[in-house]
Amino acid sequence: MAINIEVRGKIIAGGKLPLICAPLTGKNQALVLDELTGVLGKGPDLVEWRVDFFEHITNVQEVMQTAVSIRQTAGDIPVLFTIRSAKEGGQPIALSEKQVVDLYAAVCRSKSIDLIDFELSNPREQIHNLRKITSENAVKLILSYHNFEFTPGPESISLKFREAERLGADIAKAAVMPKKLEDVLTLLSLTLEARDQLQIPVISIAMGEYGSLTRMFGWVFGSVVTFAVAENSSAPGQVPIEDLKTVLAVTQKGLGQSACYSSKQSHGN
Fold first, then answer.
1. 232 burial level (CB within 10 Å; 0-12, 13-18, 19+)
2. pLDDT digits (tens, 9 = 90+) for 61-78
């Protein structure tokens, strides 16, 4: 059974419901901060800055300034910093692998973010280096796997979860593309298995139309974060945050749990 994780008072793992994460995909600082204002008005539990959408990603100073501004504006809302690689569904960027790692390291040391998402496909040395840096700076490390083409076999997905744990992740994440409803069932079953067998929490997402089911109900099987649209979508199948909150409340009530969902809820109560 996974250990509980708390960031800025938000229980990421161990609460009664998943945390709702809304992406920021603005191309420059002004657009990101304007987007953030609109996102915060809809009451997410986390915000994810998808820095691969940022057209000034090669300007380290501007990235750092934007991260600090996001932190100041977000208040107690935890901030997830992600540079998604093009090979796993992100935007093309003009940074080398080393420059990506250096940027992750710099933003961790700035104390302006709370979590980072780094892909399992990266070289092991880079993962180990970032694990050390996140630990030293009280930043949580999500090690992730994304497949926008199909849903791999059960053993392959299970291996990704176990590999993330072995490499020192605080949270393991897998996002896949289902071709049929059976693929959704496969992912949910593996999520339940990981919840019961791993020592770290997991995030599991199926993308596209079928995948929207996992965004709404994956938490029942153990996925601790779900991603929703507040202003702009960062992946196919994301559900508007208002609709997602309604589904979570109805599902929770149907399962007989006592506390109702609201954006102001402390999930540990």
1. middle
2. 999 999 999 999 999 999
Which is catalytic among the residues 140, 146, 160, 267? 146
- Specify whether 180 is catalytic: no
CATH code of the domain occupying 15-250? 3.20.20.70
Tell me which of 10, 16, 160, 173 is the catalytic residue.
173
Domain limits, the chain: 15-250
Task: Please state, in angstroms and rounded to a whole number, the distance separating the CA atoms of residues 153 and 81.
Answer: 29
Q: Which residues contact 104 (CB under 8 A, 6 or more apart)?
A: 81, 83, 116, 118, 130, 133
pLDDT tens digits, 224-266: 999 987 655 555 557 789 889 998 888 888 887 544 333 334 3
Return d(Cα 136, Cα 64) in angstroms, integer. 19
Catalytic status, residue 146: yes
